[in-house]
Write a structure and sequence with these properties.
about 180 residues, mainly alpha, about 0% strand, rod-shaped
C-alpha cells in the first residue's frame, strides 16, 4: 500500500510540477502572448477594414458600370430608332422615285418601274448592311448616283428633251451593276 501511496504522491508531484512549469512559462511569456493577441486582433481589424473598403469600392465600380451601360443602352436604342426612321425615309424616297418613273414613262410596263425600284432597294440594303464606314459611303454614293440618274432621266423625259421610250441612263447603270 505504501508503494501505491508513493506512486500516487509522485504522480501528484509530477502533475503539480507540470502545472507550475506551465504557470511559470505563461508568466514569463505573458507580454509576448499579449503582444501576439493584440497583433492578431489588429490584423483581423485591418483585414476587416480592408475588405470593407474593397467591398465599398466594388459596389461603387458596379454602380458606375451599371450607370454607364444603362446610358450606352439608351443611346444605342435612340441611335437604332433614328436608323429605323432614316431607313423609312429612304424607302419613302425610293417609292417617290418609282412614282416619278411611272409618271414619266407611262407607256412602259409596270415591271420596268418595279425593276428600277428593286435595284434602288438593293443598293439601299447594301449600304445599310455595310459594316465598314468606307464601304457604307461607297454604297451610299452609288445609291445617290443611281437616284440622281433616275430623276434626271424622268425630268428629261417629262421636258421632252430626251428619248421618251426608255430611261436609258438608269438602265445602263443597272446593267453595269450586274
Amino acid at each position: 500500500m505504501k508503494l501505491i501511496k508513493n506512486l500516487i504522491a509522485n504522480i501528484l508531484k509530477l502533475v503539480y510540477r507540470v502545472k507550475d512549469e506551465h504557470l511559470t512559462w505563461q508568466q514569463n511569456n505573458q507580454p509576448k502572448l499579449a503582444t501576439l493577441r493584440l497583433a492578431k486582433v489588429l490584423a483581423e481589424n485591418d483585414l476587416a477594414a480592408e475588405l470593407k473598403k474593397r467591398g465599398t469600392q466594388l459596389e461603387h465600380d458596379i454602380a458606375m458600370l451599371k450607370t454607364q451601360h444603362t446610358a450606352e443602352l439608351a443611346m444605342f436604342k435612340i441611335k437604332c430608332q433614328q436608323d429605323v426612321q432614316d431607313y423609312k425615309q429612304y424607302l419613302q424616297s425610293l417609292e417617290q422615285l418609282k412614282r416619278s418613273i411611272e409618271m414619266a414613262y407611262q407607256h412602259l410596263p409596270e415591271s420596268v418601274a418595279f425593276a428600277i425600284h428593286h435595284h434602288a432597294k438593293y443598293l439601299l440594303n447594301k449600304m445599310w448592311e455595310a459594316q465598314a464606314f468606307e464601304e457604307r459611303m461607297a454604297h451610299e454614293m452609288r445609291l445617290i448616283q443611281f437616284m440622281s440618274t433616275v430623276h434626271e432621266d424622268a425630268r428629261l423625259c417629262l421636258e421632252g428633251s430626251s428619248h421618251p421610250d426608255l430611261p436609258e441612263k438608269t438602265l445602263s447603270l443597272i446593267q453595269k451593276a450586274e
